[in-house]
Structures are given as structure tokens and as C-alpha cells.
Amino acid sequence: MFFNTTSEPIKDILNLNRALKSRNSKYSSSIRTFALTSQFYSSKTYIMFVRKTFKNLLPHPTTLKTWYSVVDGNLGFTKEAFETIQLCVKQSPQPIICNICIDEMSIRKQISYLNGKFYGRVDLSTSAGEDCEDFDNTQEATNALIFLAVCVNGYWKVPLGYFLIHSLCGSETANLLTKGFKLLRETGVICHSITCDGTTSNLSMCTSLG
Question: Which of 13, 15, 74, 158 is the residue whose CA sits 20 to 30 A from 195?
């Protein structure tokens, strides 16, 4: 691995040896970006090589986890994702064109109780909440339905949200996709296409969308 010592993140790291001895010192935005990107590509490489190369001046993986945790990871469409895309639109000199990818991921059936809430049931982020009378009869989720925005004329992709499901008919998936389209349109992004596999439910979804 080669590091360019003239880049801004590396300059900041090399100049931080004395500054980081203070407990109140903070990492610059360039260092945060460098650390998060390095850890994203390879967590093991970041821990075993990158941090050691710079004498452990870079943030500890626990710190990176804390930075990631500020994003709301609850069910449904993620507000921060659309805010980030909207920021990209404002900063881009040209219109941004996106494709929405839809896919299901199999998950283990399990009901967990944490901080006064149950997790693992079918949830489309539309229920009244756990005080609903028939909430205890809700079916266990077996899949996660994922929505992902991929920039066609750029180099980024952003998870838009996810929903815990057991099975959805085409019209139900179409309703969720329509909501995602509306939120994405509000950011200023141009979206002309979707990508999905050829399951019966997805074909039915396309029929529902016309």
C-alpha cells in the first residue's frame, strides 16, 4: 500500500502527534474521511497496517463505530440518506441521474427485546406502534427488503432504507417504491430506472406501476 505524504489527510496525521496528546483535541474532517474510507475498504487492513503505520494516531475502530452510529438505522427510509443525496445535488455542476436497486436479503427468524422494544417482526414502518392490540400476533420477519440508490453519472451509492418482511405482493412493493421515488425526487435527483431480479412478486410490482 502506498501513501502520498503530500495529501491533506496525511499532512494532518503527521502534524497531529503533539496535538493528540490532549484529551480534548479533535480530528479534522480530512482525517475523519481518510480513516472512515480506509476502514470501509478493509477493516482488518485499517487495524493491522494503516493505524500502525501512523503510530496509532488515527481513530480507534470503536471511535469509527461511534461516528457511524449517529445515522438513524431504524426501519423505513433513512432521512440522513436523502439529506446526503440532496447535498450532492447542490454541489454537483450537472444533474445527478440515479438508478434504484431493490433486493431481498434472507435473515434469521428471531424476536429480540431491547430497550423496551421488540425487534424481528414484520415491519413496514407503517404500524401504529407496539401499543396496537394485534401487534403481538405479527408474523416473524424472514427477509429484509433493501432499497439502494446508485448514481449513474457519478461514483457513489447510498442505501435508502430497509423493511422487515415475510412476503409482499407486487402492489405492496410498488407502494414502497413509489414512496422512495417521491422522497428521491424531492432531493433533485433524476431517477429513470430500477434494477431488480425476475421474481414473480417483482414482475407483479412492475405491472402495478404500469
Answer: 74
Model confidence over 48-98: pLDDT tens digits? 888 888 878 888 999 888 888 777 778 889 999 999 999 999 999 999 999
Q: What is the dihedral of CA 50, 53, 59, 62, to 10 degrees?
A: 60
The residues with which 114 forms a beta bridge, in sequence order, are 117
Its sign, for the CA torsion 162, 75, 176, 107, is positive
- Which pLDDT score is estimated for 15? 61
By residue count, the chain amounts to: 210
Name residue 126's amino acid: T
Alpha carbon dihedral 105, 106, 109, 113, in 10-degree steps, equals -20
Name the pTM for this structure: 0.68
**Centroid of chain to Cα 94:** 24
